[in-house]
Amino acid sequence: MDTIYAVASGGSVAGVCIVRVSGPRAKQVALKLMPGKKLPPRSPVVRRLFDSGGELIDIALVVFFERGRSFTGQETVELNIHGSPAIISKLLSEIGKFPGTRAAQAGEFTRLALEYGNLDLTQVEGLGQLLVAETEEQRRQAMRVFDRGIGKLVDNWRKSLIKAASTLEVAIDFSDEDIDLDWAEMFHAPLRMVLDEINAEIEGQQVRKSVSSGFEVALVGATNVGKSTLLNALAGREVAITSSIAGTTRDVIEVRMNLGGYLVSFLDTAGLRETEDDIEKIGMSAGRRRAENADLRVVLLENPGDSAPTVLDTDDIVLVGKMDRWPNMVGGVSGQTGQGVSQLVERITKILSGRVHGQGVIVSDRQAAALSDAAKVLKNVVNVPVSEPELVAMDVALVIDSLDCLIGRVDVEDYLDEVFSSFCIGK
Fold first, then answer.
1. Which residues define the annotated binding site?
2. Which residues fall in the annotated binding site for K(+)?
3. pTM exceeding 0.85
4. Residues in the annotated binding site for GTP
5. Domains of the chain listed by start with CATH number
6. What is the per-residue pLDDT across 120-144, written as a single tens digit (0 to 9) for each?
7. What are the entry keywords (predicted)?
8. Are 403 and 112 in contact (CB under 8 A)?
9. How confident is the model at residue 181 (pLDDT cuts 50, 70, 90)?
10. Rounded-to-integer distance, Cα 304 and Cα 299, Å
11. Best CA proximity match to 225, nearest among 181, 263, 189, 270
């Protein structure tokens, strides 16, 4: 097994840089860099680091982790050096001179942690999401997954399934005895509970996926109702051309921003009207499609009392778009003056927060697919009488296999390459 090394703290110039070395020769490599010194385990020590010619490279804070007590599970040394590119380059060059060492590949430290059993696959996915989190809600969601949120669920489900299988085994053993027990109900009850919890996780996955990738909020309405002006007000800069000429916006203009901890893309869609302009028709068609698929729509009206277009969801917001023209109006919005903009932002944030709250932990399509496979088999087991216990036991085993696949215990080797390719070198 190779000993791998890399910068673990990012590549930009900084006051401190962490170089991680992990593998069977990690301690040996570190001791060669600090002749005559010792490395007590899990105790930060200040050491002078020298190159092979005896020249001082840097003065570092060094921490040694024994095998089984490190992030990777392997012997690991972390060298906290000054963040000068010259120092980093020199130290990496010296480490690379030792036999059996090589530069780490993307995500290789985390892969070692997975292979050693320090992390399960869902934790690896959670860590990947955590490293790229831009908003507070993305951080919270990723941390729930990284903190074994999914693994804990799977552990509980496994226990319930094994308990049900044990009940089935007892029922078979005592089938000839005159015991007044409802074996079928004792078997099915824990399975129904697991199925209900799995279905709840699957149903909430799309919302949690939107937290990770970002929600889309479409601004829709007729031409010249203030959609582009409102978009500019929300963005705090001019991102869309505004004009009194109807049909100015012909394509979907998208602006991403952090809205109350949620990543949100506001979509300015082409105004809806009768037109002979083919390009404008294409823009309106594209706008309709994006609006229909958006997570939320803000429908702007020109005048109080105007009828709104078909609202696709009960959460959709309908407002007069130029409330500055109506001095006594309450509840509208004006991108021109800023009236009602903060209230609109609060309302959108509240709606998104209500959707996310209590939605579980399953995020990715892979995780949802594994649960769907388990749910299909489990639904069949729950709804079928226990007349052929051997076949039922096999189905329960299939459900457990699907759950094991979810957390990476079986059959995920091809997927691992895809996961770790998105990690940085030092992770």
1. 224-229, 243-249, 268-271
2. 224, 243, 245, 248
3. no
4. 224-229, 243-249, 268-271
5. 3-116 (3.30.1360.120), 121-213+364-407 (1.20.120.430), 224-265+276-353 (3.40.50.300)
6. 999 999 999 999 999 999 999 999 9
7. Cytoplasm, GTP-binding, Hydrolase, Magnesium, Metal-binding, Nucleotide-binding, Potassium, tRNA processing
8. no
9. very low
10. 13
11. 270
